[in-house]
Amino acid sequence: MIQLYGFEYSPFVIVQRRILDFGKIPHKNVKVPNHDRSVIWKLTKQRYYQVPVLKDGRQVIFETQEDSQVIAKYLDNKFELGLFPKELRGLQTILWRYIENDIEGIGFKLNDIYYRDFVPVSGHLGFLRHKERKFGRGCLDLWRAQQKLLVAELAAKLSPFEQMLFDRPYLLDNRPRFADFDLFGMLGNYLYTGRYRLPAEHTQLQAWYKRMAKIKLADLPK
Ligand SMILES: N[C@@H](CCC(=O)N[C@@H](CS)C(=O)NCC(=O)O)C(=O)O
Predict the structure, then answer these.
(1) For 52, which of 13, 20, 58, 186 could close a Cys bridge (C-beta 3.0–4.6 Å)?
(2) Is there an atom of ligand 1 within 6 Å of 134 CB?
(3) Do 91 and 194 fall into the same domain?
């Protein structure tokens, strides 16, 4: 059975988990503590330490670049999910770069400031150190101080998606494509603690998010 390695609140893990559920693909979610990546390191034969990683039989699949989408393309290909249609090539790449940089870049900060909600006490030191080494000393305090501004910035960056959803049920089409799952994952991370809501003014996005949370491949017309 397919195994998805990662931690629940990771935006990139949420993307793959939702894709697996969408396709009703039997799988097991294997929890990896954020502060201890030794399982991943071993699984990938010392080639990778990030999550998610997918194991399918003897195959171990993980990203090769910041925006490579190796896992999603593997699942799409194997289970014919229709996530990467030829006619949307290029356009989806531009979209997922925006989603994974601009949206994720704000969403994760707003989620991280509440890390005590979801990281076990034994992982606090590792979490804090990892963040401060990457984003500078006091970064979590800074993001806490900037919270209101960041929430407003996120709402503004989500506006193009709200506009796209006025004419269709999903971002690019009448069925969800990879960009939908990608945005769903970034927002799933932002909403993870239950301390935030999607911007009140983005009513289309709210309805889309609800649809995305439960849509199944089998529900779509052939
Ligand atoms: N582009 C990768 C990004 C994966 C990623 O950034 N994972 C984070 C968790 S959300 C991670 O493992 N970070 C650990 C680190 O950088 O040390 C993907 O799409 O999977």
Answers:
(1) 13
(2) no
(3) yes
Q: Is the CB of 108 under 6 A from ligand 1?
A: no
Whether the Cβ atoms of residue 150 and residue 143 lie closer than 8 Å to each other: yes
User: Which residue, judged by its Cα, is nearest atom 19 of ligand 1?
Assistant: 12
pLDDT confidence tier of residue 78, bands split at 50, 70 and 90: very high
- Residue whose CA is at the smallest distance from ligand 1 atom 1: 66
Q: How many domains does the chain have?
A: 2
Stated pTM of the model: 0.97
Between CA 130 and CA 18 the distance in angstroms is: 27
Q: What spacing in Å lies between the alpha carbon of 221 and ligand 1's midpoint?
A: 34
Kindly report, residue by residue over 23-36, the tens digit of the pLDDT.
Answer: 999 999 999 998 88
**Structural domain of residue 179, as residue ranges?**
86-219
Residue type, 159: S
Q: Establish whether residue 127 lines the binding site of ligand 1, counting it when its CB lies within 6 angstroms of any ligand atom.
A: no
Tokens at 214, concatenated: 């439960």
63 lines ligand 1 (CB under 6 A): yes
The structure tokens listed for 22 are: 């969408």
Both 101 and 10 in a single domain? no
Please name the residue that has the structure tokens 């289970």. Answer: 79
Q: Is 70 in the same domain as 104?
A: no
Last residue of a domain, one of 79, 110, 126: 79
